[in-house]
Structure to design on (405 residues):
């Protein structure tokens, strides 16, 4: 299809205009601070999560019209926050209302809006704990207080992006302690009797659930296949630091023995720390782990330029870097998931997915190597340039995660 020069210039101009508009649109109305009150009625099993959100304008009415305060608040309530009962996420549509948080003399383009979002629903049968998760991609912190049966908790919780709240027990309350189950009621329940069944006392009729509470939609507990897929996707295509390290191991030598030793040491190392990290037994700052993982491919890639056989120090380096890779994978395992149940299933599926992804990398590399390895120019034309590229990307990734992000 022939395209005239004028038409081509018009398309390029429109494309540039759209691309330039993105950073400005991102500065439209934005949620800057959030206070959450999580209210539970243990008798009716009804709950209400109310969000008070400060929504700041950009100062440009045109940009603010693109993302009005109610839309910014609705996106935050549905995408930045996730409600969990035990390990089941729940999808709810928020009710939104706007309150002006500035005085009458404030110019319209600078008026701050406080948006109240309300999420209502019914606690799933058998649920024992409530959690709130703040998406790691949001920039606003969340302050949460819990109210149960009309009694507020004694402490606030402050949640930063990527964090879960502490589990909130959904057991009934007693006077003076809103988060402890009545021991007498607990004992009666265990013996098959409740206070309402004692002689001479009228049976208490259960209160009906509020009619305005929409039905909640719990999501099933993820199975082995879900975690296997997450493990595979943690390496391919998004885990560039991990598969670059695999490529660096592969390009040392095409013989099976050196590759087998490296892969074996690496698998043992990352599987060990993945398990320890998943159970919370080993904790290292995520910033340190990410930085080490980012630069891990630099050393083996540079070493490949000078040697082509397995040395003892190479095995030690693979082992050490593998330990850090396992901690990095443990962080990826629990990103967006609570650690309440199904830990063994999650760990097994995720680790299997990681291994399948690594096997896929090795198979692809082997196919290329079999086709080209017998060429006299293979090492100088393929291996050496590839190792230089791996080293350069690894160094850039290290600088990126350490200073640019």
């Amino acid at each position: 299809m022939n395209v005239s020069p004028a038409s081509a210039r018009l398309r390029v101009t429109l494309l540039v205009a759209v691309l330039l508009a993105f950073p400005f649109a991102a500065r439209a109305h934005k949620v800057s601070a959030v206070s959450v009150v999580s209210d539970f009625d243990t008798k009716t099993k009804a709950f209400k999560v109310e969000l008070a959100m400060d929504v700041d304008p950009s100062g440009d009415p045109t940009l603010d019209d693109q993302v009005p305060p109610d839309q910014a608040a609705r996106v935050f309530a549905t995408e930045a926050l996730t409600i969990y009962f035990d390990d089941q996420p729940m999808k709810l549509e928020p009710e939104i209302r706007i309150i002006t948080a500035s005085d009458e003399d404030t110019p319209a383009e600078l008026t701050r809006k406080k948006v109240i979002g309300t999420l209502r629903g019914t606690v799933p049968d058998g649920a024992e704990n409530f959690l709130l998760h703040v998406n790691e991609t949001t920039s606003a912190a969340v302050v949460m207080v819990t109210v149960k049966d009309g009694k507020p908790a004694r402490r606030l919780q402050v949640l930063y992006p990527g964090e879960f709240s502490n589990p909130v027990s959904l057991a009934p309350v007693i006077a003076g302690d809103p988060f402890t189950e009545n021991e007498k009621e607990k004992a009666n329940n265990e013996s098959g009797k409740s206070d309402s069944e004692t002689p001479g006392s009228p049976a208490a009729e259960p209160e009906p659930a509020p009619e305005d509470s929409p039905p909640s939609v719990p999501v099933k507990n993820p199975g082995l296949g879900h975690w296997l897929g997450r493990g595979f996707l943690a390496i391919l295509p998004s885990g560039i630091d991990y598969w670059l390290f695999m490529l660096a191991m592969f390009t040392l030598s095409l013989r099976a023995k050196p590759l087998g030793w490296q892969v074996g040491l690496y698998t043992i190392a990352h599987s060990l720390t993945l398990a320890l990290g998943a159970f919370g037994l080993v904790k290292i700052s995520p910033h340190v782990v990410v930085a080490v993982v980012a630069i891990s491919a630099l050393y083996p890639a540079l070493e490949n330029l000078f040697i082509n056989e397995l040395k003892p120090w190479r095995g030690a380096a693979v082992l050490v870097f593998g330990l850090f890779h396992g901690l990095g994978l443990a962080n990826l395992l629990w990103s967006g998931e609570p650690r309440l149940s199904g830990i063994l299933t999650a760990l097994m599926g995720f680790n299997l997915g990681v291994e399948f992804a690594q096997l896929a990398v090795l198979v692809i590399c082997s196919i290329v190597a079999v086709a080209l390895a017998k060429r006299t120019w293979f090492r100088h034309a393929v291996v050496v340039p590839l190792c230089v590229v791996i080293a350069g990307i690894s160094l850039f990734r290290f600088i990126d995660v350490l200073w640019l992000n």
The first strand starts at residue 30 and ends at 41. DSSP finds twelve helices and twelve strands in the chain. Residues 10-27, 181-186, 193-205, 207-211 have pLDDT under 50 and may be disordered.
